[in-house]
Amino acid sequence: MEQQASRKYDRRRGPDKLIKSLRWLAITGWINFAISLILYDEAKPDFETFFDRLFHVQMRYHWNETLAFLSFVWFVLCLVLSVVGIFINKKRHRRRNDEYRLNLIVLGLISLVGAVSYIFILG
Question: Residue 110: what are its φ and ψ, rounded to 5°?
Fold first, then answer.
């Protein structure tokens, strides 16, 4: 009888809404990260190739500051989504077999690097 009382049983019946929301936060974060990379690529100066010189193609040698700022905003949005997801994951991480979502941690680190690079390049 005492042996049964000392055991802790896992009474959970599956993931709750907060745990399910982690998947959607991660998906939304990675989609936003892809958008921020596209904006960053469009904002950076053009790279001149041999064919550009051969055909006298007009090149842009400066940053498009509007698109660069939008890219920064998307990076910050990704960072916020990943921090919220990590916070939810931390609050729900109580059992030994619970796992941390590695993709949220990686998304947060990469988004932080993207935001800091904007500050150093154009800040």
Answer: -65, -40
What confidence tens digit (pLDDT) does each residue in 42-90 have? 999 988 889 988 998 888 889 999 999 999 999 999 999 999 999 988 8
User: Which pair of tokens denotes residue 65?
Assistant: 């500051």
HEC string for 28-88: HHHHHHHHHHHHHHHHCCCCCCHHHHHCCCCCCCCCCHHHHHHHHHHHHHHHHHHHHHHHH
115 touches 56 (CB < 8 A): no
Map residue 119 onto helix, strand or coil.
Answer: helix
Task: State pLDDT tens for residues 33-43.
Answer: 999 999 999 99
Whose CA is closest to 35, among 65, 60, 72?
72
42 and 64 Cβ atoms separated by less than 8 Å: yes
